[in-house]
Input
Amino acid sequence: MSTRVTELCFDANDPELLARFWNTVLHWDSRTDEDRDVRLHPTDDTSFTIFFCCVPEPKSGKNRLHLDLVAGSEDAQAAMVDELVAAGAHPVDVGQASDADHVVLADPEGNEFCVVIRGDFLATTGVLGAVVFEPAAYEVGFFWSEATGWPIVHDENGETAIRAPGGRGPFITFGPPTGRAKSVKNRLHLVVAPPADGDRDTEVERLVARGARRIDIGQGDVSWVVLADPDGNELCVLEPQ
Output
């Protein structure tokens, strides 16, 4: 059994506020721990949780990872945008065309995301349509496919996508490879864990052999290992689950 994606982690100055915002449209189960960190547990086909971890640092620069939320029609898109703005989002310009068919917003802590209209590619997802790595070098999608066991389901014009076996839940997409250099720690990152009968250190070495590298982000003495993928995006490897 492959290592599996267990969490998408948001760094958050106010985890409870940010979790409430995202749950405006996700409607997942919310649980807060004693450190005020909040985890949203999916009520749809998503196979990982969303974890809001309290950090002191404010957001700096445009995120390299963002979420795509999916609406079923133009009217539904407009209604979702209105609902999210009322909950604390605001429109942002990240260079999208004036006639783009998606709407770019930022959450209350400035994390960019898109509200898109459901098409053929996102036909079978829930509201959470995709976790988007942008920009991303071409090889990054293949690294994550090997890391997670999720097959490549799209490979065109330098952009790739993977999806959980069985074809349910959100996609993870990569690209385009614009070459924009990474300058700060990502505000969002993925967390993976080997299966219950696996071994964390063995999995770390497997990922390093496939292009990851060990990094120090000031994590100290913790039970997980922090790596960077071939594009420098942070990821954490937990103990077996």
Remarks:
- The domain at 4-174 is CATH 3.10.180.10 (2,3-Dihydroxybiphenyl 1,2-Dioxygenase; domain 1).
- The mean pLDDT is 95.
